[in-house]
Amino acid sequence: MNDAYIIKGYRTAVGKAPRGFFRFKRPDELAAETIEFMINQIDGFDKSTIDDVIVGNAMPEAEQGLNVGRLISLMGLKIDDVPGVTVNRYCASGLETIAIAAAKIKSGMADCIIAGGVESMSFIPMGGYKPVPGYNIVSKGNEDYYWGMGLTAEQVAKDYNIKREDQDIFAFNSHQKALKAIEEDRFKNQIVPIKIDEIYLDNNNKKQTRSFNCNIDEGPRKDTSIEALNKLRPVFANNGSVTAGNSSQMSDGAAFLMIVSENYLKKLNIDPVARFVNYSVAGLPPKIMGVGPVKAIPKVLEKSNLKLNDIELIELNEAFASQSLAVLNELNINNDIVNVNGGAIALGHPLGCTGAKLSIQLIDEMQKRNLKYGMVTMCVGTGQGAAGIFEIL
Amino acid sequence: MNRNISKVAVLGSGIMGSGIACHFANIGVEVLLLDIAPKELNDKEIKQGLTLSDNIVKNRIVTEMFNRCIKSKPSPIFSKKFTNRVTLGNFDDDFAKIKDYDWIIEVVVERLDIKKLIFEKVDKFRREGTIVSSNTSGIPIKMMNEGRSDDFQKHFAVTHFFNPPRYLNLFEVVPGPNCNEEITEFLMNYGEKFLGKTSVLAKDTPAFIGNRIGVFGIQSILHEVDKGNYSIEEIDKLTGPVIGRPKSATFRTADVVGLDIMVHVAQGIYDNCKKDENREIFKLPDFVNNMISKNLLGSKTKKGFYKKITGDDGKSKILSIDLKTLEYKDQEKVKFETLEKAKKSKNKIDKYSVLISGDDKASNFYRSNFSKMFSYIQHRIPEIADHIYQIDDAVKTGFGWSDGPFEIWDYVGISKGVELMKSAGLDVADWIVDMKSNGNDSFYKNERGFITYYDKSTKKYVQKPGQESYIYLKNLPSEKSIWSNEECSINDLGDGIINIEFKSKMNSINQNILQGLNKGIDLAEEKYNGVVIGNEGQHFSAGADISMIFLMAVEQEYDELHYAMKLFQDTMMRMRYSSIPVVAAPHGYTFGGACELCLHCDRVIAHAETYVGLVEVGVGLIPGGGGTKEMTLRASDQFRKNDVEVNLLQEYFLNIGMGKVSTSGYEGFDLNYFKKDKDQVILNKKNQINFAKQTALNLHEAGYTKPIERTDIKVLGQQALGMFYVGADSMLAGGYISDHDKNIAKKIANVISGGNLSQQSFVSEQYLLELEREAFLSLCGERKTLERIQYMLKNGKPLRN
């Protein structure tokens, strides 16, 4: 079997939703500009040799509906030849697309695929515009299939006895790590600068244009403190422990990688950055979707013939502090190698983009630290977990 | 020529200024609210690098004051969205804008020098002919007028609002010495018709009418308390609802008003009314001065006569002050034999007779208190008012008393009142003696449906003005009565329109009321042109009588319960499906069954202060009188092609599920209980029945045809049910609702979705009414629902179980 190699990967800075710098930036444009930037980094690259563009998206409707993957391939590559597809595994979508690309390449179905994800939570609300739970399911008592994610985070906090104070400390640390990373310019190589032109009406009803560049993650807060976090009220449950401060932020962003076969590497005469080792997903009760990684991580380690000790760096998506702490505790993971540059609580969680974004961050940081094996893992709505392993070359 | 007010400038944004601005916004006027620009930057502004010339800094004071006002409870504004009718500004930059405003109201601090500076500027910038008024509570007009132009003086008056301006109805109009007659008339009319107030023409005497009499009442009590004759708790028990005054009675009211404000008014009267025979009463007892020096001013300093604390059990608790030590202590429980007796009286004359004839402390208080008050008011005519009704109107609407002092005197009896005064050593004014000796034994009379008052100067009974254009049900002569039972009466309003009036406890809808409603429609279909459903109770109606439902449910008489439900539904349906127009005139509480009644009427003429909602979940039920059906129907009428219909339906579902109640008549529209292009809000409560009558008449004259029952109501079936089930389950899992709440929510969902139909369908009203009955009856069989009803009947509050 062939191996699948990553040769490039870029992401946008992540904007806050629904009032951040990408609030009026259409997700299809954001994705297309990211891909265009990536292609331009390879001199003399022949775009028509790309086999497919696979786009992860968690709420594929409206501005990111209609098989947005195909629209993005047209818009980003500016030729007709390369198709596009949209993939949805909620918060793992961006990692799932890398896995699909790798699988196609390993099986010989493709040689070059652009994979990643995009999400605008400014444009599309969580759950979409028309949630229609199945009556026949919910009337039999399975309402939890459709629970909001915050409620599942409360359930995890309850079932795994995660205290409010610990959640707030975890959230605070996420911000501190992210602020330090930004100060040290650790994300600079990953980020595609995006220029925004907003046309709006000023206070006198005159049309104005506002232009600005976005290249620094908008989420981390310098002014946060454990005391401030402690003061926030639970938002998902009466007397609960999950707050806006210890949950991931709503975000807008795009991230894409180029994944190729060995033959293609030779043809391009380029050195790969990383090898995609393996990927697993696992299911569990929807009510406690937050602990999904507890099932997915052992599964992917076994498939890869690796032990948890072999993994030197982990990006664990911080959907909520409660579920992150539950996962770390249950698997006894060394906290020092997890989210070293901060996580989604500080940097944001643009759902369908997140898997690809975390992969890019992981690979970049591992290169800087000269490490070998790393993992991206996350919990996934309706009771799932996902985990993927990368090897730096 | 018509004078139109579309833009009002309010100068000064304190509690009163902001409150007045909000009330003008309430009635649809564009308001400019100005205050001073700050002289120093605050820390936050310094941090942000702002300067004193930045607009955001210049408007800081007015912005903070206005925001504090709109957040206060009860809300000064009918609907939050009305706040955008108010533009904020500052005296430096925006004063010149007043030239575009039709009326300029000054509400700055009560200092003549400052007011004069403001008026000088107003004189400079205002357009000729515009009205200028001051909200002063006592500065003489001629002093404020001084140095102003002729045109200014011709258009200058005091317009005195009471705090809070939205809720207290007194609007004192005091024309300046050179004020045009046209302006006085205009303001008197505007206060009633547009602001929904009771306008009282007052003279330029210290504190005008309301505060002069009201503060006299409070001051005389303060002196009694100072002598150690009564405790604070005793006074509040004696001067509360038992004599038709607010629950806050004397001292809680003082806390709300603020001791400093009250003292300021009392001091002003003391200083400026040197000839007042009771001047000493306005002098402050020492304990009041001590309280002020210790900053115990009431609600604004969180400590006054009462103080709210959180007890050891985590519950809040109210302590009262010990006037000797000025420390706070647990409230004492107060009970008086006379008050227990008074509870049994059949009418006010009986009640007052009981109150003054006992031999306990309570009766002593009333004898002393009433005689002092009678003595005081008799001497105020014509000093502060020419007519007795002006004193009664001012005290009633300014302090929330249900009866004015002359009215109370009438209940006590003129002779009895004179007797009380004499035995208290108080003199009786000549005109009272004169009036009595001429055989006039009351201050007011009801003559052929109109209230007349004894006019001191002509010694004759004169019709109280303003009644011709209104209809007062309580004054209608008996020949207008067409039919009545114990709790419901039907009266002829003239022009072929009849009125159905509820008179049950809290005007709740029971068998007698249902009988009256059916009878009224029968009669109207037979020989009249239209029906108004209106009353003059404190509230329109608290809803269906749940005690009846409770009894049948406990006895498990389900057939009878089903029959009663059907009767209720059929009666509601007759409101719409009859051959005559039916107009409802709700005001105050319009809950549950009363809301359902309004939902079915051809038109609703709601008073601005109407609190309408389907509150049945509070007693473990769903709206079963067509309310759930009507929410379904109204949602269906809003569906547009390609809309996500289920999201819209959810709004209607949540109305019922959360028992949402509007905080004003206007909000009734936001919650879809009232309907645009059909229903209407009226500010002037006095004109409500009359206007409802005109509305019914108009419908009749436009050619009214009985509507056809609807069979085209779009229901969403399983598509909606699934979402509502998940919503209810999530609320339960989040700990926001109980298991029984979820159970009730699912019942509501089933009706509003039209049952678990596989696909969207069109159904009839009768189909939905049947679903309503099923759901209602099944809930009546649940223990937790019965517990809720029982709790409500016992405690007047909902139980969450």
Largest sheet of chain A: 11 strands, mixed
Interface with most residues = A-B, 24 and 18 residues
Beta-strand percent range of chain A? 15-25%
What summary fits the major beta sheet of chain B? 8 strands, mixed
Distance between the termini of chain A: 18 Å
Percent helix range of chain A: 25-40%
Number of strands of chain A: 13
Average pLDDT of chain A? 97
Descriptive account of the structure:
- Chain A has about 400 residues and is of the alpha/beta class.
- Chain A contains twelve helices and 13 strands.
- In chain A, the strands form two sheets. In chain A, strands 1, 2, 3, 4, 5, 6, 9, 10, 11, 12 and 13 form an eleven-stranded mixed beta sheet that branches. Chain A has a two-stranded antiparallel sheet with strand order 7-8.
- In chain A, β7 (about 195-200) and β8 form a beta hairpin.
- The relative contact order of chain A is 0.21.
- An eight-stranded mixed beta sheet of chain B has the order 3-2-1-4-5-6-7-8, sandwiched between helices. A seven-stranded mixed beta sheet of chain B has the order 15-16-17-18-19-21-23, with helices on both faces. Chain B has a three-stranded antiparallel beta sheet with strand order 9-10-11.
- Helices cover about 45% and strands about 15% of the residues of chain B.
- The mean pLDDT of chain B is about 95.
- Chain B folds into three domains: about 5-200, Rossmann fold, CATH 3.40.50; about 210-415, N-(1-d-carboxylethyl)-l-norvaline Dehydrogenase, domain 2 (Orthogonal Bundle), CATH 1.10.1040.50; about 475-615 and about 660-705, 2-enoyl-CoA Hydratase, Chain A, domain 1.
- Chain B starts with 6 loop residues before the first strand and ends in a 6-residue tail after the last helix.
- Chain B has 33 helices and 25 strands.
- By secondary structure, chain B is α/β, with parallel strands linked by helices.
- The interface of A and B includes residues 132, 133, 146, 151 and 239 of A.
